[in-house]
Structure to design on (226 residues):
């Protein structure tokens, strides 16, 4: 089973600033990683897949990088709608797993 | 546009059963794998189960294997999660999610709003 570790747990940023979120996997997953944004009361939203490809409609201020076991999600020039919890998730093998989340506040 | 609407949640006694449904629209349902993902109160997301486009392949997280069964009705664009021998630790919001792959091998491009399941005496 692959363990996903996200850091930091909480990131306090102001609108207009940038934020960098980290995700580390316990085993090599190549680039089989997705990032989701989850705002309370709403459905989670796919942001990034294959570690660095933005999903349809996702603004280019969101960017993903990494391969192997270390990955990052960067949000440049944070907007008010970007606050929420961000999860990484691997799809390398079963069972699928999510990180514990990073809250951007 | 893609819509996924979960139903069937509620309060249930430990040891009892409950069946969740997820009604899908806006895409060709029988082309895609479907998942259930849950979020316990104050916790993160946890993948629960997957079913392939034709129902021939399923997979579960260990903690529900043997107690939960995922199935689908392609004629009615619905995926189900039959939950038996429920435990307090199954208390969570349950989301259904659409995979971009027919066997559910990849990532989730659409999610429902979720349905609450509370297991308590």
């Amino acid at each position: 089973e692959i363990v996903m570790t996200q850091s930091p747990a909480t990131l306090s940023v102001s609108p207009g600033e940038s934020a960098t979120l980290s995700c580390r996997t316990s085993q090599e997953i190549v680039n089989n990683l997705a990032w989701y944004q989850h705002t309370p009361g709403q459905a989670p939203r796919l942001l990034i897949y294959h570690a660095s490809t933005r999903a349809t409609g996702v603004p280019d201020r969101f960017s993903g990088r990494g391969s192997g076991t270390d990955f990052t999600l960067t949000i440049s020039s944070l907007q008010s709608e970007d606050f929420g919890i961000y999860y990484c998730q691997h799809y390398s093998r079963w069972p699928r797993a999510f990180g514990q989340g990073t809250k951007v506040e | 546009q893609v819509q996924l609407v979960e139903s069937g949640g509620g309060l249930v006694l430990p040891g009892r059963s409950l069946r969740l449904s997820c009604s899908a629209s806006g895409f060709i349902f029988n082309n895609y794998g479907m998942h259930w993902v849950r979020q316990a109160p104050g916790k993160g997301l946890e993948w629960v189960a997957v079913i392939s486009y034709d129902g021939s392949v399923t997979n579960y997280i260990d903690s529900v294997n043997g107690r939960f069964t995922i199935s689908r009705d392609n004629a009615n664009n619905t995926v189900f999660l039959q939950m038996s021998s429920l435990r307090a630790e199954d208390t969570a919001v349950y989301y259904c999610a659409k995979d971009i792959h027919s066997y559910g091998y990849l990532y989730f491009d659409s999610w429902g709003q979720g349905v609450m399941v509370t297991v308590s005496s």
Notes: The radius of gyration of chain A is 13 Å. The first strand of chain A starts at residue 4 and ends at 7. Chain A has a mean pLDDT of 96. DSSP finds no helices and eleven strands in chain A.
